[in-house]
């Protein structure tokens, strides 16, 4: 079936409605999931002279340090998340192997699992502490730019005594000369500006202006992360088509699990092996080095994929099946293990490095770090469509044939992967230039060093619990 016939068939099905719901659900889960898990148990550092305390949870007794109760809860939540993740992977693999071609049974099993998870989530709803809403860094940046544009006729250096600062902010903080066209946003034009509501589009504080500058400085560096999203999307598109067109008894879900295991192993190993050594020299460079190694690994991933695809096409040619669009190559899918492992290593290095980079440099609310990382990966997926269209246009213009066919056997995936190798190499050079000229002095800190955002409802109860824990002696 051609791509046009496929779209005509999908037009009369609820596929597009389901796709829209999937996109909305995936986009809306990042911030709440992060906030309701580890942010609910934000670590408060204990005093150096604090002693251990015996705590009873259900029928078990634990010894924790004074002030480390929330850190203990964080470890428990992390342990439970890992166990549920392992159970989910096992269930997915079992369902995939059991229901083979019965997709409706797979979706039914997923729907039941999601419904059970929703019920479990609602059971704990009374215990979730509500946090005060924090302003979005992007919204603050837009407010600053619009306010500065409205006051472009002013010279902030002539109104240094009329700068606006919110209550609770550093009243001695000064404006820097960097991106000084934004400094006018903090200038009060009259005394009536003091009565403007918080979050208005006419006046910003000095702190908001400086935070907006930090966010604008991230744009050149962030642009180099988009190519990572383009390479990452190959694992959900062309890699799967390759696996489906090769012989062997290795299911696609097994290859994806191997990629996920490799990603987590490399992510944890990078922190244990070389990240600490880099931090001894200069801590803020660790994120950039990890991203750079991940981008170099993306070159290897695409090169390996091109080599495996050339071998697959050669096997089809020797068997006389190259002109059959539905033929399976007489070559084992085990050849794909290396490229899936390489892609997992790329995600473990570059993906986690990008998330940590935004966690260290995004002003204030670090819960937006995963959102920025996923957004750039999404941009990479969208640009992938344009990149494939460019390759198709180039192949038709230069070689009078299309490299992008209707089936995997009619495509020249080996040549497409080589184009991705060239793209990854160019992006590595661009990243090396941008990262070497980027100022790492504006690091805000690690997420665990961020001051705790107080609860609205349970703050007083937490103080009472802390007092009770302090009064329990250890025998």
Automatic annotation (TrEMBL):
Gene3D superfamilies to which the protein is assigned, alphabetical: MFS general substrate transporter like domains (1.20.1250.20)
GO cellular component, one term: membrane
Keyword Membrane among UniProt keywords: yes
Listed GO MF terms: transmembrane transporter activity
Main location: membrane
Localization terms from the record: Membrane
Keywords: Membrane, Transmembrane, Transmembrane helix
Residue ranges crossing the lipid bilayer per the database entry: 15-36, 80-97, 109-128, 329-355, 375-394, 415-434
Similarity-based family: Belongs to the major facilitator superfamily. Proton-dependent oligopeptide transporter (POT/PTR) (TC 2.A.17) family.
PANTHER family: OLIGOPEPTIDE TRANSPORTER-RELATED
Protein name stated in the entry: Uncharacterized protein
Organism: Gossypium darwinii (Darwin's cotton)
């Amino acid at each position: 079936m051609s791509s046009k016939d496929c779209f005509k068939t999908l037009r009369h099905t609820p596929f597009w409605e389901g796709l829209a719901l999937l996109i909305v659900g995936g986009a809306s889960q990042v911030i709440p999931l992060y906030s309701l898990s580890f942010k609910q148990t934000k670590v408060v550092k204990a005093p150096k002279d604090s002693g251990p305390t015996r705590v009873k949870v259900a029928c078990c007794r634990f010894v924790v340090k004074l002030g480390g109760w929330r850190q203990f809860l964080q470890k428990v939540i992390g342990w439970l998340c890992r166990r549920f993740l392992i159970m989910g992977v096992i269930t997915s693999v079992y369902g995939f192997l059991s229901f083979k071609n019965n997709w409706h049974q797979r979706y039914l099993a997923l729907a039941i699992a999601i419904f059970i998870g929703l019920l479990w989530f609602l059971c704990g709803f009374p215990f979730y502490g509500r946090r005060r809403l924090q302003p979005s860094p992007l919204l603050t940046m837009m407010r600053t730019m619009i306010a500065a544009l409205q006051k472009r006729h002013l010279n902030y250096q002539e109104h240094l005594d009329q700068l606006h600062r919110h209550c609770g902010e550093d009243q001695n903080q000064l404006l820097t000369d960097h991106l000084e066209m934004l400094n006018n946003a903090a200038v009060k034009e009259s005394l009536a500006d003091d009565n403007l509501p918080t979050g208005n589009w006419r006046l910003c504080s000095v702190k908001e202006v400086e935070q907006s500058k930090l966010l604008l400085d991230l744009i050149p560096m962030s642009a180099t992360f988009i190519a990572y999203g383009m390479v990452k999307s190959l694992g959900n598109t062309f890699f799967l088509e390759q696996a489906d067109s090769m012989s062997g008894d290795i299911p696609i879900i097994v290859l994806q699990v191997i990629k996920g295991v490799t990603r987590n192993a490399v992510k944890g190993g990078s922190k244990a092996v070389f990240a600490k050594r880099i931090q001894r020299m200069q801590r803020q460079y660790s994120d950039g080095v990890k991203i750079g190694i991940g981008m170099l690994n993306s070159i290897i991933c695409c090169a390996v994929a091109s080599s495996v695809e050339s071998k697959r096409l050669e096997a089809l040619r020797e068997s006389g099946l190259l002109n059959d669009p539905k033929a399976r190559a007489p070559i084992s899918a085990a050849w794909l293990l290396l490229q899936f492992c390489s892609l997992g290593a790329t995600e473990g290095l570059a993906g986690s490095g990008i998330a940590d980079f935004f966690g260290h440099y995004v002003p204030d609310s670090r819960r937006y770090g995963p959102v920025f990382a996923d957004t750039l990966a999404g941009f990479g997926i969208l640009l992938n469509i344009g990149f494939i269209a460019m390759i198709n246009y180039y192949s038709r213009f230069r070689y009078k044939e299309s490299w992008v066919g209707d089936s995997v056997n009619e495509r020249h995936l080996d040549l497409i992967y080589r184009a991705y190798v060239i793209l990854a190499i160019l992006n590595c050079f661009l990243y090396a230039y941008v990262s070497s000229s980027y100022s790492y002095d504006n690091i805000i800190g690690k997420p665990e060093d961020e001051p705790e955002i107080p609860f609205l409802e349970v703050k007083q109860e937490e103080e009472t619990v802390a007092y009770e824990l302090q009064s329990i002696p250890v025998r």
